[in-house]
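Example 3.2
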Amino acid sequence: MTVSRVQGAIFTVMVLPIADPYDPALESGLQEQISRSPNFFANAPIIFDLKDCMGGTSPDDFIELKSMLKRQGMMAVGVQNASTVQQRAAAAADLAPFAAANGRRAPTERATGAAPSAGPTKLVTQPVRSGTQIYAKGGDLIVTAAVSPGAEVIADGHVHIYGALRGRAIAGASGDKTARIFIHRLEAELLCVAGRYLVSEAIPPEHIGKPVQVALVEDEISIIPG
C-alpha cells in the first residue's frame, strides 16, 4: 500500500510590501516592474508583507489584492508581518501566515563586513546542473564549479561560487542581511540577499562576466566589483 507523506522543501517566493490594499499606484508600479522581466514574474507565488499596512483587516482587502495579482499573472499564497486581526482576515481569504524573513537575528558583523555562519559550511565540487536546487541550511555554501541556467543555489549564510553563475543565487535565505554572494564570473538569472533581488535584465552590463560581490547596502541590493 502506498502511503502519502508531507515533506519539507524550500522554494523561492517573492514578497510584495503593502501599505494600502486599495492604492491605485500599487498595480501600476507592479506592472512597470513586471514589464522589465515578464518571464521571471509569470505565475510567480507572492507573499504580502504587511509590516507598514494599516489596512488588511477585512477578507475583502485580501480578495482585492489577490485579484490584482491574478490580473498581472501572479498568485498570492500568504502574508508576513501580519497582526492577529490581519492574519484572521488573510486566512478567511485563503492566505497562509508566513514567518517574517527578517525574524532571524543577524549574527555579529566582522570588521570585513562578512558575518560568521551559524552552521556547517556545505561544499559542492561538481557543476550544478539545470533544474537542481542546493540549500545550505544554517550556514554557508561553497560551489567550486559552474552553476547552470535554471539551477538554484541557496544558503542561510554566504554563497561562494568559484565558477560562472548562470542560474540563481540566494544568500541570507533566513533573513540575514549581512550575508553576501561571492561570484567568480557573473552571468546570473537572479541575485538575492535576504529577500532583496535583482533579475538578469536589471544587472548593470559592466558587471557581466566579471568577479563581484553582492551585498545589501543601506537595505538595497548592490553589486561590488571584485
